[in-house]
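Structural prep section.
Before we set up the soaks we want a predicted structure of the protein with flavin-adenine dinucleotide in place, mainly to decide which crystallisation condition to try first. Input record follows.
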Amino acid sequence: MNSAQSSPQAAIVGAGPAGMLLAWLLVKNGIRVAIIERHPDFSREFRGEGIQASVVKHLDELGLMDQILKKGMGIRAEAARVFFDNKPVAVLKGIDGNTDFGLILHQEKFLAHLHEKLSESPLYTSYLGHNATQFDGKDEKIVSVRIADKQKKEQSISADVFFITTGRGTALRKKLGMKSFKVATHWNILWILLPEPEQKELLPKGFRAYLNGDSLFIMYTNSEGMIQLAWGRRDENVLKQRDFDQRKSALLSEIPRQYKTLIERGYTQASRSQFLKVECDRLHQWHKKNVLFLGDAAHTMTPVAGQGINLAMRDSIVAANHCIPLLQNNHPIDQIVFHNIEKERIKEVKMMQKFQQKFGYFMLGAPKWQSKIFFLILLPVLKKVGIQKRMLRKIQTGVSDVRFEHKS
Ligand SMILES: Cc1cc2nc3c(=O)[nH]c(=O)nc-3n(C[C@H](O)[C@H](O)[C@H](O)COP(=O)(O)OP(=O)(O)OC[C@H]3O[C@@H](n4cnc5c(N)ncnc54)[C@H](O)[C@@H]3O)c2cc1C
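Run finished without errors. Recording the tokens verbatim:
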């Protein structure tokens, strides 16, 4: 634990992209913050790293983009390309066609960087390696969150306001009696990390999605030159197959030809890989008493079109905009403030979840003939009439106007 002198005004539970960016914005504006994270560091299970143009712009305005690029925390993604049976069916470039599509951000390095810089401030207290388990309150107010370290040693952290940014499947929803509903998803994913290929030009900067037969492959080169491969499949038993040789031979038989050597040489028993269940849901209401849920904890996103980190960070910017002046003046934050934050964000969340559901369905959920019609006939028609471009623009820039309004 590193510690500030007096008790925090805001306790943030969960040090993912939503929590750490919120901590950054609040501390920069003189607010005392405590961050609670169950992991002892920022290394993560496999997670997406795709950052859209909208968040690249935010990071730039916050003065973080330069550091990201200089310190190797991310690399520019020139474009995202989608192929159906090896035919190109969609290309996403920068917003005006000239700039990059977005960024491939190394989450672990980025979050660790924010934490390191924040730790220089006396306003920032961190409890890494502490799991938040319960809330304690009086009347209409939560006064503290109970946290426990690895040895189950408990302590309580008091604050005026609590932000829950604990990501998908968080048990803290239940602790506060939050109600949610599910949005349908259609497939799960096996993540595999592959070594840097001998042919460096194999995967040009950016993202590639291939729909080949019964499989979906999402691939990109990360900031360390390694290749991230997400493999989704209509019959997912193959992904969960315990026998490595059988899994590898299924992968080799379905992956696009140009990547076969990479898999043959690079995919071994020792490769890092993980089966991830794809989920999508959202809370009926994001807040209760003086507690606000943000990011995946409020609305869990699927990997389709790389939206989750982006929405999570944009939630934090909007929450910070509303809360900073109140916290600076020691004014209470009531339900109306939280309601307004949710209202400002919900349109974008609903639209993106709807898009993820529909696009995800046509990727692997629909019968093959429907997917074929969608990608080879409908998508080109949408392109001709300009709808595809408008749709892609929304994915890249979001549907609401988000801008950080305080000191960055
Ligand atoms: C396979 C896959 C690929 C994806 N690809 C992309 C992509 O390319 N682009 C994109 O934008 N999004 C992508 N996403 C979604 C994205 O990963 C999430 O939407 C994003 O990480 C949400 O950020 P968050 O800060 O809300 O939560 P998280 O990143 O989940 O962070 C939550 C943090 O809270 C901590 N925590 C949880 N419970 C507790 C507790 N009780 N006490 C203390 N700490 C706790 C966790 O350890 C974690 O550090 C993908 C998701 C999946 C599953």
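Observations: The chain has twelve helices and 22 strands.
Flagged for discussion at group meeting.
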